[in-house]
């Protein structure tokens, strides 16, 4: 499962979120990964109805995901009516055990959205299949393949000047896969890589991690700020929620929580207790 991204609940509890590979995914994906949310009411007040489902938006998670651009399949004919097609880029893939349940994050004319097999990208473009490392679409009746960008090998199709990026229209006309030549660091993909990634960020600048997510140290926990990462909402949290503990350990002191990061990552599971008004929500995340 490729995540671009995903969301971290800062410092000592970042492993609970990043390692889960499901914190910033939509609910159906979180449950398929073994992520559960248990709600319990306090004795003084009845539990409120669950909040309405929120619109899916994976911008936060995909800050870590690999970026891609549309590329035609080998059998796409040159001279396709490319002018009628918008610019399309593959941003990330949430791969499920059953391929028809997999979800792709695709940007169409710079507007990102989540798509499954059978979903239309536009009036003339439809998603046909979402695989682990690519997406098949049909545009104006022609099959095309969306790939993540990669550095081409020496025997790739046509020779091109170093550093040149080719538009979707050029790819369609040439019917070849053209890679993005821009240099970039390979994003983390495995649980261990995500844990290491966030460990480095936490050690380098803990406050920047807090600001990036939208968390405020509140002494008795971490409060979700009014301005927060979109992944927070996708995880089911709201502005004003207070993350009180992780694996039974109280949080709220950045220095102490930073030292607990590795212990949480090594435990294999993270259990977050969140206070919302008079209600207590418990989120449980597998880390392996």
TrEMBL record:
Residues 39-146 form the Type II secretion system protein GspC N-terminal domain. InterPro entries: PDZ_6 (IPR041489), T2SS_GspC_N (IPR024961). It is found in: Cell inner membrane. Its main location: membrane. Pfam families: PDZ_6, T2SSC. Residues 234-276 form the PDZ domain. It comes from the Bacteria. Keywords: Cell inner membrane, Cell membrane, Membrane, Protein transport, Transmembrane, Transmembrane helix, Transport. The keyword Cell membrane applies. The keyword Cell inner membrane applies. One of its GO terms (cellular component) is plasma membrane. GO terms for biological process: protein transport. This is Type II secretion system protein GspC N-terminal domain-containing protein.
């Amino acid at each position: 499962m490729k995540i671009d991204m995903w969301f971290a609940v800062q410092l000592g509890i970042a492993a609970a979120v990043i390692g889960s590979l499901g914190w910033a995914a939509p609910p159906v994906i979180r449950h398929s990964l073994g992520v559960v949310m248990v709600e319990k009411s306090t004795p003084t007040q009845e539990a409120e109805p669950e909040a309405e489902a929120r619109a899916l938006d994976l911008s936060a998670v995909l800050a870590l995901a690999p970026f891609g651009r549309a590329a035609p399949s080998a059998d796409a004919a040159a001279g396709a009516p490319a002018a009628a097609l918008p610019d399309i880029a593959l941003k990330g893939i949430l791969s499920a055990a059953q391929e028809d349940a997999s979800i792709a994050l695709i940007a169409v004319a710079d507007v990102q959205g989540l798509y499954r097999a059978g979903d239309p990208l536009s009036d003339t473009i439809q998603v046909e299949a979402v695989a682990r490392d690519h997406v098949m679409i049909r545009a104006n009746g022609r099959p095309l393949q969306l790939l993540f960008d990669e550095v081409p090998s020496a025997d790739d199709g046509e020779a091109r000047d170093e550093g040149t990026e080719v538009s979707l229209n050029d790819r369609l006309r040439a019917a070849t896969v053209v890679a993005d030549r821009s240099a970039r660091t390979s994003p983390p993909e495995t649980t261990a890589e995500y844990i290491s990634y966030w460990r480095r960020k936490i050690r380098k600048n803990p406050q920047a991690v807090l600001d990036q997510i939208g968390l405020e140290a509140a002494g008795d926990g971490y409060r979700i700020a009014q301005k927060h990462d979109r992944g927070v909402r996708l995880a089911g949290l709201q502005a004003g929620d207070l993350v009180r503990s992780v694996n039974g350990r109280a949080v709220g002191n950045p220095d102490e929580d930073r030292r607990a990061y590795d212990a949480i990552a090594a435990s294999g599971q993270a259990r977050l207790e969140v206070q919302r008004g008079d209600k207590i929500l418990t989120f449980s995340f597998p880390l392996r």
